[in-house]
Amino acid sequence: xxxxxKSGGAGSVYLLPGAPAQVAKLYxxxxxxxxxxxxxxxxxxxxxxxxxxxENGKRYVxxxxxxxxxxxxxxxxxxxxxxxxxxxQTAELEHIMQERxxxxxxxxxxxxxKLTLAANLAAVIDALHQQQHYVVDxxxxxxxxxxxxxxxxxxxxxxxxxxxHAERFPAEQFTADYLAPEFQRKGMPAGTEMAQDRFxxxxxxxxxxxxxxxxxxxxxxxxxxATDIPGRIRDxxxxxxxxxxxxxxxxxxxxxxxxxxELRAMFDRAFSPSPQPQRPSAADWAQLLRGYAQxxxxxxVVCTVNPEHQHFAGQGCAACARDKVIVAAAQASVQAQQQxxxxxxxxxxxxxxxxxxxxxxxxxxxxGGGISGKGWxxxxxxxxxxxxxxxxxxxxxxxxxxxxxxxxxxxxxxxxEVFSWRPRKTAGFQPSDAxxxxxxxxxxxxxGDDGAVTRGLQLLYRxxxxxxxxxxxxxxxxxxxxxxxxxxxxxPGYQPALVASYLDLLQANPRDHLVAAAMGRMHLSLNEPQxxxxxxxxxxxxxPTDGTAWLGIAxxxxxxxxxxxxxxxxxxxxxxxxxxxxxxxxxxxxPGEPADNGVxxxxxxxxxxxxxxxxxxxxxxxxxxDKTLADGALLAQKLQAMPPLRDQVGGxxxxxxxxxxxxxxxxxxxxxxxxxxxxxxxxxxxTYAAAELPMEPMLNKALLDSVKRWTYLPxxxxxxxxxxxxxxxxxxxxxxxxxxxxxxxxxxEN
Length: 750
Known about the structure:
Layout: E1 4-7, E2 11-15, E3 22-27, H1 33-45, E4 53-55, E5 58-60, E6 68-71, E7 77-83, E8 90-92, H2 99-104, H3 111-130, E9 143-146, E10 152-154, E11 162-163, E12 168-169, H4 193-209, E13 219-220, H5 229-235, E14 248-249, H6 261-270, H7 282-293, E15 300-302, E16 310-312, H8 318-342, H9 373-394, H10 399-413, E17 417-421, H11 431-447, H12 450-465, H13 475-486, H14 496-508, H15 513-525, H16 529-542, H17 547-560, H18 564-585, H19 599-616, H20 619-640, E18 651-652, E19 660-661, E20 671-680, E21 686-695, H21 697-709, E22 712-713, E23 715-717, E24 720-722, E25 724-733, E26 736-741
Antiparallel strand pairs: 1-2, 2-3, 3-7, 4-5, 6-7, 8-9, 9-10, 11-12, 13-14, 15-16, 17-21, 18-22, 19-26, 20-21, 20-25, 23-24, 25-26
């Protein structure tokens, strides 16, 4: 077992260092292992037809279905092995339903991606149902999807209702907000799991296509309507049907009225209050939604008002209609706040109207109906203190600052906000980031994009420099360890004791690049190029400036087959990396040797590693490896002659700074100027954006949408990528806002 990933009520999940693409789940000892084993055997025999999807060389695991049983040292059943899902590349389905939450998580907000997700989800559920397996506890927080491909990723499959030999293994949990109406009162009996899945699937699809709104939410017409969602499901209070519900009105921001008739009819079937509803199956949903999700179908069009919106062909834009409702509500709120602020303060004492006798104000301790002598003394003291404080304030040298502060507070009270945004902090440099960088660099070389190669290597080296050295800066120890692990002829097969020792070392310190590379060579000698490449990529992640790890990736790429050009590119990157590292770090020469910054010694190590990798490959590949090394060396010479990056100031690409429309809430603040201060990282990403002055919320929203769309240019100084701060002038008038980079004179023409 490797590192513990997570632990739940049923068991614990561990990484498998010997199988990087898999994890093992071990059941807790107190559970019924005999029943769990029968359930697992049923799952292995009736696996759903959901193969991994491969796009652009990337593998997407759609479902973490068991692949094999796990036994302990005495032969007892302990758990199972399943595919490893890259959780960092996935997100919860719930996060894409709400626009604000989706934007904060960097997820798409349009209707098109949501239709694709809904179609993919229906297809996954249909594959499960074909084997008579059911999810039961089907809800958005239990579902995940890949951010880039929108494939569904399902976890915790052993908690599903599983069909076995002459027995069914029931699901243990359900959620009341997604439980079918016929089960709300008496629970869900055996044999009704399909009906439950069909209902829950329809609820999730409705939420995906309707801004996260639950189909049983809405505005009650009387006190008899249940206040909770389960109660409304139980009573059949579906407010979004073709025929309106008598007691429950739909949510004001709902877009159900702008859905095509066939889609609304499907939802009516799913949420019909009839005793035996004929709910659509997962296959029905998949077939219908696929037609809307496919671009070639022409059933979904881009909104002409806002290109970020999409809507059904022949229907209005539900997203625009929703924005108008939100703007109108915000305007009403701002007006109410302004009216409340402008109302005079009620005086505690009544004024005397002409012709009316004064009214005595009772004071504690005063039984005569007027203010006593002590009371008048207190009043006089308070007035004097007020006058002293007022005089000190008006004569203070900080008068302007204080008044500005009060004005800012008044602006805040009037509904204005100061724009300030910082993207979600990344988890740091991960092994998957190194894998992407290696792939991108190889592609950049194939395209002849020298600038992308230089930028990519700089950023990769910088990410590696931020890590603490495994050897604490002891170069002698590192050289001795490298000699022991990389010596000529040291090409092991599978040695269990050695493997266990190396895996222990890697688990204790995943950045031990020498051990990771040794594991890569071991898998290479076993003709397992995929596992070998993962370990070599781990070595690059641990130390990007070590050219020998790059050579290992090249050898794995050649052994795996496919694009031979990739292996040549990686050899060139290996030699370029080793050369630059030697020159930039000025390695000392041994006594009696000419000083060359250690280039000769570094290249000797590279040649030795290349020979070891040659021996690690099957005989048929060794001659091809020799040719790959020769071609890579020639390419490396060309890469060494690449010019440095041209110096430039950081900024925003002008073509991406388009004028945008927004909903004006306050006529008083409809026209004006502001300044945005942007912080741009060396990798060209925006790390912080803030405005100097407060603005109305809808304008701030337009600014947020804009800064997320812009393309940023990092600063380059003496050929090195640098962080930068950029000023952008914001000009807005009558619902339109435009942007001008700082330093550009603003004239009537621009």
